[in-house]
Automatic annotation (TrEMBL):
<comment type="similarity">
    <text>Belongs to the 4-oxalocrotonate tautomerase family.</text>
</comment>
<feature type="domain" description="4-oxalocrotonate tautomerase-like">
    <location>
        <begin position="2"/>
        <end position="58"/>
    </location>
</feature>
<feature type="domain" description="4-oxalocrotonate tautomerase-like">
    <location>
        <begin position="74"/>
        <end position="122"/>
    </location>
</feature>
<dbReference type="InterPro" id="IPR004370">
    <property type="entry name" value="4-OT-like_dom"/>
</dbReference>
<dbReference type="Pfam" id="PF01361">
    <property type="entry name" value="Tautomerase"/>
</dbReference>
<protein>
    <submittedName>
        <fullName>Tautomerase family protein</fullName>
    </submittedName>
</protein>
<dbReference type="InterPro" id="IPR014347">
    <property type="entry name" value="Tautomerase/MIF_sf"/>
</dbReference>
<keyword id="KW-0413">Isomerase</keyword>
């Protein structure tokens, strides 16, 4: 269950931009990191330019927006190459949907231990441990249904 928060400072995103960010961030989590799209939550939040600063100076009203994407994933579920590809693709997604952005645009993947987070009252570890495990001999038994019984 990935949780994605996108923060935008400056110009207010249109409803179409918000929908595009939500849909494309969900697709990115599934396509690049292999996360389940049906459990991906994406929140898009807007902040006024005066609420954010770069180098101690507030953003200029009417200037380029600034954006930040923060995603929570379970530790150890993705390779360094996948995480690097996600960061590149997420940055490109923000610029593509929102237009030219102020710098720096941060993308953060936060890896949490499976026992430290979850959804609907269960940790990720509890969900993983509750998965049914098929005994190794069971597939072999499926092919024996046509074997004649010895008399």
């Amino acid at each position: 269950m990935p949780l994605v928060r996108i923060h935008i400072a400056g110009s207010t995103p249109s409803p179409a931009q918000v929908a595009a960010l939500q849909q494309r961030a969900t697709a990115l989590m599934a396509g690049v990191l292999g996360k389940r799209a049906d459990l991906t939550v994406v929140a898009v939040e807007h902040h006024g330019a005066a609420q954010w600063s770069v180098g101690g100076a507030a953003l200029a009203v009417g200037g380029r927006p600034l954006a930040q994407l923060d995603a929570l994933i379970t530790a150890g579920t993705n390779s360094e190459a996948e995480k690097s590809a996600f960061i590149r693709a997420a940055h490109a997604l923000l610029a593509d949907v929102l237009g030219p952005l102020a710098s720096p645009v941060y993308v953060a993947l936060r890896e949490l231990p499976a026992g430290d987070w979850g959804y609907d009252g269960l940790t990720q570890a509890a969900r993983r441990d509750a998965l049914p495990v098929e005994p190794p001999y069971l597939p072999a038994l499926h092919g024996m249904s046509n074997v004649k019984q010895a008399s």
